[in-house]
Amino acid sequence: MSDATAPDDTMVDREPDSALAAVLAAAKRSDLGLVVLTLGLIYLGATLLTFTDGLNSVVGLLRTLTFLGLVYALSTLALNLHWGYTGLFNIGVAGFMAIGVYTMGIVVRSPDPAFGPPGFGLPLPVGIVAGMAMASLFGLIAALPALRLRADYFAIVTLGLSEIIRLTLQSSTFDTALRETLGVGTGGGRGMGMPQNPVRGLFLVDGRAGDPTALGAAVFGTLGEGGLGISNNILIGWGYILVLAVFVVAFYVLLERLGRSPFGRTLKAIREDELVADSLGKNVDLIKIKVFMIGCALMGLAGILWFGSQGNVSPSPQFEPILTFYIFVAVIIGGSGSNTGSVLGGIVFAAVLFEGPRRVGAVLRDTIDAPTPPTFGDAVAAADPVGLLAYATDNIAPLQFVLLGLVLIFIMHRRPDGLLGDRIETAAAVDLTRREGGERDE
Prior knowledge:
Elements: H1 9-29, H2 31-50, H3 55-86, H4 93-108, H5 124-146, H6 151-170, H7 172-181, E1 192-193, H8 200-203, H9 214-222, H10 232-260, H11 262-272, H12 274-279, H13 284-307, E2 312-313, H14 315-318, H15 321-334, H16 339-367, H17 376-381, H18 385-394, H19 396-414
Antiparallel strand pairs: 1-2
C-alpha cells in the first residue's frame, strides 16, 4: 500500500477528540443539553464511587444528588430574579423560605394539639398558596423601608429581617402567643412536623406503609424489592424528584417569559442604571416592590418543596444565614443573570461542592489504613501524606469550607461571570451584538 493510500495515524488519533468536541459543542448550543451533560458527568462520578456497594447504594446516592441539585436550582432561580435580573442584593433568602414552609405547616396541620403544634387543618394546596402569599407579604415589608437603600445597605436590611424571622420562629414565647390568640403554634425551637408528602400516596394506600397502590405494585414489582431489589423508599423518593423537576421547568419558563416581557426589560434596565430607568419615566420604586414580592413568593415555594418534604422543620440549623450563602455561591458558579446558569450552578454546587466532598472523603477513609492525627499541626509535623489524608477525610466538614473558599477565589479570578455569566440577559429588545462585517442589528 502506498503512502498516499495509507491511513493517516494523526487523523485516526484525533477522531475521539473530534467526537468529544462535537458532543460538547452540541451541548453548548442547547440549554437542556448542558443540564443533561452536567447531570451525566455527576451520575458517572457517583456511580464510580459507590458501584462496589451494590445497586441500592448507587441509586440512593443518585437520588440524593438529584434532589439537592433540583432544590438548589429552584432557590437559585428565585434569587436570580432579584440579583441577576434587577440587581437587588437580597441575602435574606433563608428567612423567606422559612416563612413559606412554616405558614404552609400551620395552615395544613391538624387542629388537635395532641399531635404537636396545632394548625388550621386546611387542604395542602391552600397551605402552599398561603405560604407563597405570606412570603410575598414579608417581601413587601422588607421592600418598603429599603427602597432608598443601595447595595450593601439593602443587604443588611434583608439579612436582619431573615434573622428576625428565624429567631421569632424559634421563640417559645411566640409559639405560646400564637396558641393563645389563634389556636395554632410553631413548636418553638423543637420545630414542627410537616404534612405527609402527597407523592407517597401515589405508591402506598395509606401513604406511609402497608399495601401498595396499582402504580406502587407495578413499580415495586419491577424495580423495587420484588424486582431489581432497589429499596421502595428510594423509588418513592425518585417519584418526588420528578415533581421537583416539573417545578424547576415551571420556574425556568416563568422567568424566561418574564425576562423577555416589557416588565423584564425594565428590571434589567434598573439593574444596569437605575437613574436612567427613572429618567425614562419608569416607576422604579413600584417595580422594585413588585419584583421583590414575586421573588419572595418563589423563595417561599422553594422552601415548601425543599423542607416541607423532609418530615420536620426547625429554625436552626435549617434556616440559618449559611443557607443563603450557599444559594449565593450557586448563583455565582452558574453566572448571575442567566437562568440556565442558575440551574447549572445549583446542580454543580449541590453535587460537587456540598455533597461531593463528604462522599469522596468517606470512600477515601475506608481505604486508608492509618491512625488519624489528633490535630492539623500534628498531621503536618509528621510529614506523612497518608496521615495528613486521614486527618483531612476525618475532618471533611470544616475543610469543606476551605474548599468552598478556594473555589470562590478561583472563580472570581479566572471566571468572574460564572459558567454562563457571558449569557446575561440585556435590557434591549433586539440583538445588539456586532456582526462579522462590523455592522449592528438595527
